[in-house]
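Handout, section B. The chain below has 82 residues.
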Amino acid sequence: MDMSVPFGVGRKALLTALGVGGGCGAAGLLMALDQSVRADLTLHPPKLPWSHNGTLDAFDHQSIRRGYQVYKQVTEEIEQEW
């Protein structure tokens, strides 16, 4: 029996393959667990019944009219100065 090589080449290859495979499997398991926990900790905003759900309902029409009136007055004053 040759004592200079404690493990045969085949046994070294088998142990290396088991180590690499086990490491990859453990890394995959940890990544999957991390993603599942991260998905559970994500906060989502609540769905509330806002009064301005429509496309044009989001605007305050009175403030738009006031803003337009101020715009017209300012532009008229500027045009008179020129």
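Note. Residues 9-42+58-81 form one domain. Compare this with the example in section A.
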